[in-house]
């Protein structure tokens, strides 16, 4: 029974892709948070219930002043960005026997403080031309994201289909540099596979997805579609602690349509992750830390990201023995 509870807390939200900053398309932002498809990404909660996840995310990146960059109706030369964000997630698992697998639905709400600095704003949202350095920061909210997942499992092999839908109703700061809101419809569909062996402690996971991006009707900017591929390997060193490595690759497969014409992004990164399973008030909980370093990017910010996940079940329907 204890092992079942620990598994449900540890794996409830590991497979969620979160909306994030500093990744491709308009403003350098994407719906899917690269790096979130780490260890156990295809493993679904083993019981019905309600699960909570909190992710503190920090990204620091920049792009050379030699590059022009579109961001929220502005065209800037040179950009430094630091994003501190909090993603609050609720996941409901109504059935572990839906189409032979487990179904989960939920929602993600982002809050945060993006801090942006441009060497020069070449064109503003109203067509004006500027040359001075410009800084902008704000405490704001992003667009809410709906989540639906369906997963199947064998003794060691797990598979999962997932869909994310970003709804453009967040606090979009028109014409400003600092935003968490994408202010466009976006849908990400992904498939994941995990080979998870509790006896040996090894987990090998892979995930691939395609993001459909819509148009920002304020800036009249259409962001191109993207693909993302991720892989991770992790070893449980004890019942409480595990350590692993992961990597991701992202590429736009269709061009943006905006003031810079054909504009595509691409990136590759490597990093590491560690997880700690604990018991809080007789309830199993999991802390997971990740750090990713972008080795190379094209037409995007390049930098490092760090985030800390905390997941815990709020309610579990444990089957009677």
What is the secondary structure topology, with strand pairs?
Layout: H1 2-11, E1 48-71, E2 74-98, E3 101-123, E4 134-137, E5 140-141, E6 145-153, E7 157-166, E8 186-197, E9 202-213, E10 215-216, E11 221-222, E12 226-236, E13 241-252, E14 266-280, E15 283-298, E16 302-317
Antiparallel strand pairs: 1-2, 1-16, 2-3, 3-4, 3-5, 3-6, 6-7, 7-8, 8-9, 9-12, 10-11, 12-13, 13-14, 14-15, 15-16
Short summary:
The protein is mainly β. It is built from one helix and 16 strands.
Structure notes:
The protein is mainly beta and 321 residues long. The chain has a single domain (2-317), classed as monomeric porin ompg (Porin). 3% of the residues lie in helices and 61% in strands. The chain is built from one helix and 16 strands. Strand 10 and strand 11 (221-222) form a beta hairpin. The longest helix has 10 residues, at 2-11. The chain is elongated, with a radius of gyration of 20 Å. Residues 1-24 have low confidence and may be disordered.
